[in-house]
């Protein structure tokens, strides 16, 4: 019955948005209420579940997304993104832009959460698209594949790190195995998959906040300034992460390192620098720069509401216990432990939306099996991480992030982002099984 209720709630959400044209945020609220009632959550606590879901997700994303939009705005308006795009083209050639974007996203995606990396790199994708008249999704798919793979498989992302601890796996070994899998996964699901004719025919106009008109080359900021400012969040997080390895919690400077390595603080520091390096130092008035920041936030307001709605729906499903119930029923299947871990994570991911929640819930279910010797714990981390990426759809904030930033329809988002995520998940399982035969 639980499977049926979850399936019907997803159909209700899709129906409200696609057929009745209800604003997605309102559709999420209505679906969350309906799901909460149907799944037996006490009436007096449903509203609290919705509020917690919105609060927890917005608490994690609001600052990063808002500051990221402002950073993207100044990077685009100043011509920095255009300068970087010219450099990429000259370095890799226009016919290999997908590979350069995939490489950039893979490097960026190792230290950054998916949402932070997405907000950071999407202006670059749009700039390349506008500059060379390439459909946005042709360039976007390699970026999305690289960010998704690093998020699901590689430490220091929260899902893989938590799985390593839960299975008593070895962090270094898991990272090595993860890199062995990640490289071919990104290549197949990114540049190669992105070459399908479907993406070339997908004519969409991405979010206007990043659609700055091309400037004459002589008016562009310098390459070093452009690269350093646009990728400053990455530089800061990598450097601070390395520095933090030499500090114990008892060290005097530990608190400062943790403070400045927080993604919210990193984005704020990066925006302050960008305001100076790409704005004030190049003759712009502060009022003009702030006006651009205001328009950037207005452009992403609906995105924030939609992601908040997805958080409400996810929390209702979590509070109802649906993920644990689904996982427990799958545990009874007599299959290879790695496939079972992947399958449990996949079903929970489809049901509740969050890849991290799916991974951690699946780990709790499968951990007794691993502890008893049922599978290599390092490979189980990667199997569950891969399964947690499958079939992102309307209950996942990432689905709406991609849809709204790239200005896709629901159908286009399913046929691009959702399908790409499924390809990544299946490739991950195949890779894990091959490694299991070799090791």
From TrEMBL:
Cellular localization per UniProt: Cell membrane
One Pfam family hit: GntP_permease
Keywords: Cell membrane, Membrane, Transmembrane, Transmembrane helix, Transport
Membrane-protein topology: Multi-pass membrane protein
Signal peptide (UniProt feature, chain positions): none
Entry keyword annotation includes Transport: yes
InterPro entries on file: Glcn_transporter
Keyword Membrane: yes
Ranges that cross the membrane: 25-43, 55-76, 96-122, 134-154, 174-193, 223-245, 265-281, 293-313, 339-366, 378-394, 414-438
NCBIfam families: gntP (TIGR00791)
Family: Belongs to the GntP permease family.
PANTHER family: GNT FAMILY GLUCONATE TRANSPORTER, HIGH-AFFINITY GLUCONATE TRANSPORTER
Protein's name according to its UniProt entry: Gluconate:H+ symporter
Higher taxonomy: Bacteria, Pseudomonadati, Bacteroidota, Cytophagia, Cytophagales
